[in-house]
Design a protein that fits this description.
This protein is α/β, with parallel strands linked by helices and 138 residues long. The protein has four helices and four strands. Helix 2 links the parallel strand 2 and strand 3. Helix 3 packs parallel to helix 4.
Length: 138
């Protein structure tokens, strides 16, 4: 698996982006009790997808996946110290911008991994996926 922030421009250019899965993890920094770090429930997937129970990486042949840095972004969160929440439309708009930027760069398969269940947050992700899919359909 490649990590976007560790790749040079020539290495990115060498990727077969039409066949490479781009993984983007999005979840807020959210407090989950006195013993858990704010990003604990969100970051393990981003830092080590192979530990994820979903097994998403099995669908991508070796060298055909790229992991983007986690977006600590979310709406409909707990209102506690240590939690950062943004408006639902901000989640949608940022995800549209990321999706369209990846599509302009030649990526055709974008997998959004989400670790947050806030209803407005999920709606924002669904809306963004629909917008990007419609804008990039050929």
């Amino acid at each position: 698996m490649h990590r976007l922030e560790e790749m040079s421009s020539p290495a990115l250019d060498a990727l077969d982006r039409e066949r490479t899965v781009a993984l983007l993890t999005v979840s807020p920094l959210e407090e989950h009790g006195p013993t858990c770090p704010s990003a604990w429930t969100r970051s393990p997937l981003a830092t080590s997808p192979r530990r994820s129970p979903s097994g998403w990486w099995l669908a991508a042949p070796a060298g055909r996946s790229i992991l983007l840095p986690t977006l600590h972004l979310g709406s409909f969160t707990f209102e506690t110290v240590g939690t950062i929440s943004v408006r639902q439309r901000v989640v949608r708009d940022v995800m549209v911008d990321y999706g369209e930027a990846l599509a302009r760069s030649g990526f055709r398969f974008i997998l959004v991994a989400n670790g947050h269940g806030g209803p407005g947050h999920l709606t924002a992700l669904d809306e963004a996926a629909a917008i990007v899919s419609a804008a990039t359909a050929s």
